[in-house]
C-alpha cells in the first residue's frame, strides 16, 4: 500500500481533512442517492404517520415539505459548507465557535443522534421483518418463536452494517447508487397500490377522526407540520458536514442535500405513510403492504424496504465512527474494532427491541431540539463573523489554538445552545405537543435559530472579540503553519489528533 | 479498511506519531495549489445563493398554502 493511498484511506476512516482529490462523491447523482437512501429508512414511514394528525393530511404533507426545504437549506449551510471547504468533520469545524473542549456539546448531540437512531432502525428492521414473516405465514406476532426471529434479524442486521461500514464510504457510495433509486421505485409502487385499492378520490378526501386531530386550526396545523419538517432537518446537522467533506464539486452540495434528504427520502416516503395511516388503518408498511399487495409481492417489496434500512445504519455508524475519534482512545483503535465497539450495545438492544421502540423513541423526539441553537451559532459564526475563513491547524490544536477561548470552551456558545433548547421547549414541546400561542405563526425552530444566531453575533461583538478570544479581532484570513514541534516557532501551531 | 500503515496487531495504533504525521501532511497539502485551486476552496457565494432560493421557495409555498387555506375557510 502506498503512503498517499494509506493517508487517503485514513482520512476517510478518521478525522484527517479529506482533500479535494480524495473526495468520494464525484457526481450529482452519487451524492443525491446517498442522501436519499440515508433518509428513506422506515423512520420516514413512522414520521409520515403523524402528518394527518395536524388536522388535514394535505396540509401535513405540504407543511412537512416546506419545513424540510427551509430546514435542510439552513443545515446544509451551517454544517455542510464549512466541512465541504476544509474536508473536516462537523465537530472539528464547530471548534471555531465552541472551542476545542466546548465541542463536547455538539459531540454529545451527534453521538446521541447517530447511535440512538442506529439502534432504533435496527429495532424497526427486526420487528418489521418478523411482522412480514408472521403476516405471510398467518402466525401470531407474539410468542417465543416470533421473538427469536426478531432477535435473529437484529443480530444479522448489526453484522451486515459492521461488514459494509468496514469497507468504507467508497463502497457504500456505490451501494447507495442502487438502493436509493430502488427505494424510490418501490415507494411509487406502494403509492400505486394504495391508489388501486382505495381510489384517488378517497385518498384525497379521507382524514383521521376529528377527535384524534392535534389541531382544528389550519394555520396552527400548518405551522405544526412545518415544525415537523424543520426539526427533522435539524437532526441532519451532524450528518451533512460528515457527508459534504466527501463531496468533490460545489454544485453537488446543496441540491442533493435538499432533494435527496428532504424531498425524495423524507417527504415522498412520508406521504405514502400518511395516506396509508388514514386509508389502510396503519402506517406500518410491514402490515398493510402484505394485506393489500398480497403475501408474495408484499414480501418482496418489504424485503427491499427493510434492506434499505441497512444503508441508513451504515452511514450513521460511519459518521459516528469518525466523530467519536475526538476522544483520543478511539482515534487509536483499528477502524473495524471501533465500529464493532459502537455496534456492541446493539447486541443487547436486539433482545429489547420492543422496549427500545417504546422508550427511546420518545426521548429521540427531542433530538432536533439539540441542534437548533447549534445551527444558528455555527451558521452566523462561519458566514458572518468569520467570512468563510477558518484557521485549519487551529481545528487540530489545543492550548495554543486560535479557538482556545476560556480553557478550550466558548461559554457564550454553550450558554446560547442551552438557552435555545429551553426557548424551543417554551414554544413547543414535541412530546406533549403543547404549543405557545406564537407557535402558529412561525413554529419553534425558525425563530429560535434566528434568535440564537443574532445572540451569538452580539455576544461575540460585545464580549468575546473585545476580550481577544476566538481570533475574531486578528482579521479573517489568518492561517497558522502546522507543526509537530512541541516548542512551535512564531506563526506555527502544534497540531495533533 | 486500515486506518494507517502502521503496525496494529493488538488493535491499537503502535504510535500516535504516525497519526499526527499524517495530519501534518494533510494540513500542509491543504495549502498546496491542488487544493487551494479546487472548487472546495473558492467562495461559497453560489451555495448561499442556492440555499436562499430554496428558502424563498419554502416561504412562497408556506404563504401560498396559508392563502389557499384562508380562501377555503
TrEMBL record, chain B:
Q: Which domain of life is it from?
A: Bacteria
Q: Which UniProt keywords apply?
A: Membrane, Transmembrane, Transmembrane helix
Give the transmembrane region(s): 51-71
Name of this chain's protein = Uncharacterized protein
Amino acid at each position: 500500500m502506498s503512503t498517499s493511498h494509506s493517508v487517503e484511506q485514513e482520512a476517510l476512516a478518521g478525522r484527517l481533512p479529506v482533500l479535494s482529490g480524495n473526495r468520494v462523491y464525484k457526481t450529482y447523482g452519487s451524492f443525491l442517492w446517498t442522501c436519499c437512501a440515508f433518509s428513506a429508512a422506515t423512520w420516514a414511514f413512522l414520521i409520515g404517520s403523524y402528518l394527518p394528525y395536524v388536522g388535514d393530511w394535505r396540509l401535513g404533507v405540504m407543511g412537512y415539505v416546506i419545513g424540510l426545504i427551509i430546514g435542510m437549506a439552513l443545515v446544509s449551510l451551517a454544517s455542510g459548507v464549512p466541512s465541504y471547504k476544509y474536508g473536516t468533520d462537523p465537530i472539528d469545524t464547530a471548534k471555531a465557535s465552541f472551542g476545542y473542549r466546548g465541542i463536547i456539546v455538539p459531540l454529545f448531540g451527534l453521538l446521541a443522534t447517530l447511535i440512538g437512531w442506529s439502534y432504533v432502525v435496527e429495532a424497526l428492521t427486526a420487528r418489521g421483518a418478523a411482522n412480514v414473516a408472521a403476516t405471510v405465514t398467518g402466525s401470531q406476532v407474539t410468542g417465543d418463536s416470533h421473538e427469536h426471529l426478531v432477535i435473529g434479524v437484529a443480530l444479522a442486521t448489526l453484522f451486515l452494517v459492521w461488514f459494509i461500514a468496514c469497507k468504507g464510504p467508497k463502497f457504500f457510495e456505490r451501494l447507495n447508487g442502487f438502493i436509493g433509486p430502488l427505494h424510490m421505485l418501490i415507494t411509487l409502487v406502494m403509492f400505486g397500490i394504495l391508489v388501486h385499492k382505495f381510489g384517488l378520490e378517497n385518498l384525497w378526501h379521507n382524514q383521521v377522526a376529528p377527535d384524534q386531530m392535534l389541531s382544528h386550526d389550519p394555520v396552527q396545523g400548518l405551522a405544526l407540520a412545518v415544525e415537523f419538517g424543520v426539526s427533522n432537518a435539524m437532526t441532519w446537522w451532524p450528518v451533512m458536514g460528515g457527508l459534504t467533506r466527501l463531496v468533490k464539486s460545489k454544485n453537488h452540495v446543496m441540491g442533493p442535500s435538499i432533494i435527496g434528504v428532504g424531498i425524495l427520502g423524507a417527504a415522498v416516503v412520508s406521504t405514502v405513510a400518511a395516506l396509508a395511516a388514514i386509508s389502510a388503518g396503519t402506517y406500518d408498511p410491514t402490515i398493510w403492504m402484505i394485506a393489500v399487495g398480497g403475501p408474495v409481492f408484499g414480501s418482496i417489496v418489504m424485503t427491499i424496504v427493510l434492506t434499505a434500512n441497512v444503508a441508513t445504519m451504515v452511514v450513521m455508524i460511519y459518521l459516528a465512527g469518525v466523530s467519536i475519534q475526538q476522544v483520543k482512545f478511539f482515534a487509536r483503535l483499528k477502524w473495524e474494532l471501533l465500529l464493532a465497539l459502537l455496534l456492541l450495545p446493539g447486541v443487547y438492544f436486539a433482545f429489547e427491541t420492543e422496549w427500545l421502540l417504546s422508550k427511546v423513541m420518545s426521548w429521540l423526539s427531542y433530538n432536533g431540539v439539540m441542534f437548533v441553537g447549534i445551527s444558528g451559532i455555527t451558521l452566523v459564526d462561519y458566514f458572518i463573523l468569520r467570512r468563510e475563513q477558518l484557521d485549519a491547524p487551529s481545528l487540530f490544536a489545543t492550548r495554543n489554538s486560535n479557538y482556545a477561548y476560556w480553557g478550550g470552551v466558548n461559554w457564550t456558545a454553550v450558554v446560547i445552545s442551552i438557552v435555545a433548547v429551553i426557548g424551543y421547549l417554551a414554544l413547543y414541546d414535541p412530546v406533549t405537543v403543547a404549543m405557545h400561542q406564537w407557535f402558529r405563526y412561525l413554529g419553534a425552530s425558525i425563530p429560535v435559530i434566528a434568535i440564537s444566531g443574532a445572540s451569538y453575533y452580539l455576544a461575540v461583538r460585545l464580549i468575546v472579540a473585545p476580550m481577544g478570544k476566538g481570533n475574531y479581532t486578528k482579521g479573517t484570513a489568518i492561517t497558522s503553519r502546522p507543526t509537530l514541534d512541541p516548542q512551535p516557532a512564531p506563526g506555527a501551531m502544534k497540531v495533533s489528533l | 479498511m486500515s486506518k494507517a500503515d502502521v503496525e496494529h496487531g493488538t488493535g491499537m495504533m503502535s504510535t500516535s506519531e504516525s497519526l499526527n504525521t499524517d495530519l501534518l501532511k494533510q494540513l500542509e497539502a491543504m495549502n498546496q495549489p491542488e487544493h487551494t485551486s479546487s472548487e472546495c476552496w473558492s467562495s461559497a457565494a453560489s451555495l448561499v445563493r442556492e440555499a436562499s432560493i430554496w428558502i424563498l421557495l419554502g416561504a412562497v409555498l408556506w404563504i401560498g398554502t396559508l392563502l389557499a387555506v384562508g380562501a377555503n375557510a
